[in-house]
C-alpha cells in the first residue's frame, strides 16, 4: 500500500543512508535492580499481561499513578510482553527528557531498543526503522511519531504522561493525536493499550470514570506522595517591599538550602533575558518583522530574537517610530535574567540553566542534568524542561515564578495546563527522604487553579473544571475542530476564511456551532498570515467528510 501511495504522490519516496551512530552511546548505563511490587500493583499488572497473552483488545487501561509506580511497572509489563513473543511501543512526551527511563530500559533488556523521535538525523531514523522492520528491535521508545513504527507482533502500547499536549501534532501535516492513534492501532492489532499520568487530562479522566477506560488508581496517597510544604507568596504585596524578582521567603530558603548542601529548582516558563522591548514615549513594541510576536532580548548574545521563526536583530538605542532614545525600556524577565539576578544576590551559589537556549547541542540536556545531579551546582533554573520527569534526590526546594501568566491565554485548556505544570513542579521537591518545600510566587494568589495545584488536589480541580467545560460546551462534552486558513496575502487569507465558513454553514447539518473568523493566536508567522475559526459539535467523522466535500 505504501508503494501505491508513493505513486499517487501522497508520500514522497526518499533514499536515506542508514547511520550507525547510537544516540546513547555516550551515556553511562548502570544495572538497575527491579523492585518489588505491592498487591494492588500486582493485580493491575496481571490484568495487562492477561490481555496481552490472550491477544485481545480490551478497553484502554488507565493508570492514575505516581512516578514511582510508573517506573517500576511499565518495564515489568514490557518484560512480560516480550516473554510472550510480543513487541511493545512505549511513548513518552519528549525523548530528550527521558534519558533516565531509557537508561533503565537499556540496563534491563537484552533486546534491542529502537528510539524514534523527530530530532534524530534521517540516517539514525533509517537505521532504527530497519531494526524494527527486521524484528531486531522488539521495543520502540519514542515521541508521538513512534506510533507509526512498523513493528510486528505488537502486543502492548504504553502512553506515558498521557496528559502531555505534545502527543498532538497540529502545526505540521499530517495533523494527528497520537493518543487516539494508539487506541485505534491497538484495536486493529489486538494489542493492549495502557495510558498513565499523575495528572490525567480532563478528557481522559472523564473517559475513565465513564467506563470508556478501565481506571486503576494506584497509590493510596495519590498526589500526596511527597510531603512538601507549599507556600503561595502574593507578589502584588511583595513587589511593594522590594524590586527583586525573588520574594524574601524564596531568597531565605535558597540560602538555607545552600548552607545545608541541598539543592534548589527554580521554574520559570520563559527563556531569554527580557521578554519584550518597548518605547514608553510612543508605546512602540519591537516585533519580529516576519511574525506578529514580540522579540525577546538575549543578553549574552546581545540580540533581539523571535522565538517563533528564529529571526535575530540588533537591539536598538532609538525608537524606530518616534526616534526617542530616552524611553526605550526592556520588560518581562526570562530564565537568563533570573540566573544573573540570582548571581548578583548570591555570588557563591552556583547555578545551571536548562532551556532551549542552553540545550541547542545534541545531548546537552543529558550533560547538564548529570552535572546538576552530581552536585556541580546548587540551583537549577529552567523552563518546563526541568519539571518534566527527572528525579533529583537532593532537591528539597522548588521555586515557581509567574506560572499564572499562562492562565490568561485564551484557550479552554489553559487552567488544565497550569494545574499540571504547577503540580509537576511541586512534585520535584522532597521526593526522597529529605522533606521538601515549594514556594509559588504568584500575582493571582487567590486563583483556584493555583491553590488546588499547590495542594496537589486533582479531584477538586477536576470537579471544577468539568463543570466549566459542561457549562460552556467544551470537550469532552463536544468535540472541537479548528480550521486555519493561511496565506502570505493577509486580505486573501481573511476573505477566504469567511468564504469557506459561509460555504460550510450551507452544507452543515444542525448540531454544530461555528464560531466567527478571527486572526489566529499567532496571526502572522514566518511571513504567513493566519485566520481561524472553531467548530464545535458531536459528530466529527461526519464533519470531516463534509469538510472534504466543501473544500
Ligand atoms: Zn531565544
Ligand atoms: Zn517611540
Ligand atoms: Zn519571527
UniProtKB/TrEMBL annotation:
Annotated Helicase ATP-binding domain ranges read 76-218
Molecular function terms, GO-annotated: 3'-5' DNA helicase activity; ATP binding; DNA binding; hydrolase activity; metal ion binding
The record's keywords, sorted A to Z, are:
ATP-binding, DNA replication, DNA-binding, Helicase, Hydrolase, Isomerase, Metal-binding, Nucleotide-binding, Primosome, Zinc
Domain (Helicase C-terminal): residue spans on this chain: 292-484
Question: What GO biological process terms are annotated to this protein in UniProt?
Answer: DNA recombination; DNA replication initiation; DNA replication, synthesis of primer; double-strand break repair
Mind naming one GO cellular-component term on file for this protein? primosome complex
- CDD domains membership: SF2_C_priA (cd18804)
User: Any idea of its EC number?
Assistant: 5.6.2.4
> Per the record, what are the reactions this protein catalyses?
ATP + H2O = ADP + phosphate + H(+)
Asked whether the keyword rRNA-binding is assigned, the reply is no
What protein does this entry describe?
DNA 3'-5' helicase
Amino acid at each position: 500500500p505504501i508503494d501505491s501511495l508513493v505513486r499517487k504522490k501522497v508520500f514522497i519516496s526518499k533514499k536515506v543512508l542508514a547511520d550507525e551512530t547510537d544516540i546513547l552511546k555516550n551515556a553511562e548505563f548502570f544495572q538497575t535492580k527491579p523492585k518489588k511490587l505491592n498487591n494492588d500493583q500486582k493485580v493491575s499488572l496481571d490484568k495487562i499481561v492477561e490481555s496481552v497473552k490472550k491477544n485481545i483488545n480490551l478497553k484502554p487501561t488507565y493508570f492514575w499513578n505516581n512516578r514511582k509506580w510508573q517506573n517500576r511497572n511499565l518495564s515489568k509489563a514490557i518484560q512480560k510482553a516480550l516473554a510472550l513473543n510480543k513487541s511493545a511501543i512505549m511513548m513518552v512526551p519528549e525523548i530528550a527528557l527521558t534519558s533516565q527511563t531509557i537508561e533503565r530500559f537499556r540496563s534491563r533488556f537484552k533486546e534491542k531498543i529502537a528510539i524514534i523521535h523527530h530530532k534524530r538525523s534521517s540516517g539514525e531514523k533509517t537505521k532504527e526503522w530497519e531494526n524494527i522492520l527486521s524484528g531486531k528491535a522488539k521495543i520502540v521508545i519514542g515521541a508521538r511519531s513512534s506510533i507509526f513504527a512498523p513493528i510486528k507482533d505488537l502486543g502492548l502500547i504504553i502512553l506515558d504522561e498521557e496528559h502531555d499536549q505534545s502527543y498532538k501534532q497540529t502545526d505540521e501535516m499530517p495533523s494527528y493525536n497520537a493518543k487516539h492513534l494508539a487506541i485505534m492501532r491497538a484495536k486493529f492489532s489486538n494489542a493492549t493499550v495502557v495510558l498513565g499520568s499523575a495528572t490525567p487530562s480532563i478528557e481522559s479522566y472523564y473517559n475513565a470514570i465513564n467506563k470508556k477506560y478501565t481506571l486503576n488508581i494506584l497509590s493510596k496517597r495519590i498526589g500526596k506522595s511527597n510531603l512538601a510544604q507549599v507556600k503561595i507568596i502574593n507578589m502584588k504585596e511583595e513587589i511593594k517591599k522590594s524590586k527583586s524578582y525573588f520574594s524574601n521567603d524564596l531568597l531565605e530558603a535558597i540560602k538555607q538550602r545552600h548552607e545545608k548542601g541541598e539543592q534548589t529548582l527554580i521554574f520559570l516558563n520563559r527563556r531569554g533575558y527580557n521578554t519584550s522591548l518597548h518605547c514608553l514615549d510612543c508605546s512602540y513594541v519591537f516585533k519580529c518583522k516576519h511574525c506578529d510576536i514580540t522579540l525577546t532580548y538575549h543578553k549574552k548574545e546581545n540580540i533581539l530574537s523571535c522565538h517563533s521563526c528564529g529571526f535575530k536583530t540588533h537591539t536598538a538605542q532609538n525608537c524606530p517610530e518616534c526616534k526617542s532614545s530616552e524611553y526605550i525600556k526592556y520588560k518581562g524577565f526570562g530564565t537568563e535574567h533570573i540566573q544573573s539576578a540570582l548571581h548578583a544576590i548570591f555570588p557563591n551559589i552556583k547555578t545551571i540553566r536548562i532551556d532551549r537556549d542552553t540545550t541547542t547541542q545534541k545531548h546537552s540536556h543529558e550533560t547538564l542534568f548529570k552535572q546538576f545531579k552530581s552536585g556541580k551546582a546548587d540551583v537549577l533554573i529552567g523552563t518546563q524542561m526541568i519539571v518534566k520527569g527527572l528525579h533529583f534526590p537532593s532537591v528539597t526546594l522548588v521555586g515557581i515564578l509567574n506560572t499564572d501568566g499562562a492562565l490568561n491565554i485564551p484557550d479552554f485548556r489553559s487552567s488544565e495546563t497550569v494545574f499540571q505544570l504547577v503540580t509537576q513542579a511541586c512534585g520535584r521537591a522532597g521526593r526522597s527522604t529529605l522533606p521538601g518545600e515549594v514556594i509559588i510566587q504568584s500575582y493571582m494568589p487567590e486563583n483556584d487553579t493555583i491553590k488546588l495545584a499547590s495542594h496537589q488536589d486533582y479531584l477538586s480541580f477536576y470537579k471544577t473544571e468539568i463543570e466549566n467545560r459542561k457549562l460552556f460546551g467544551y470537550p469532552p462534552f463536544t468535540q472541537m475542530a479548528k480550521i486555519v486558513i493561511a496565506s502570505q496575502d493577509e486580505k486573501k487569507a481573511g476573505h477566504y476564511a469567511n468564504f469557506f465558513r459561509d460555504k460550510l454553514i450551507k452544507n452543515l447539518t444542525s448540531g454544530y456551532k461555528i464560531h466567527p473568523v478571527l486572526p489566529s493566536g499567532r496571526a502572522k508567522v514566518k511571513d504567513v498570515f493566519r485566520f481561524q475559526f472553531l467548530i464545535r459539535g458531536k459528530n466529527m467523522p461526519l464533519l470531516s467528510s463534509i469538510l472534504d466535500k466543501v473544500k
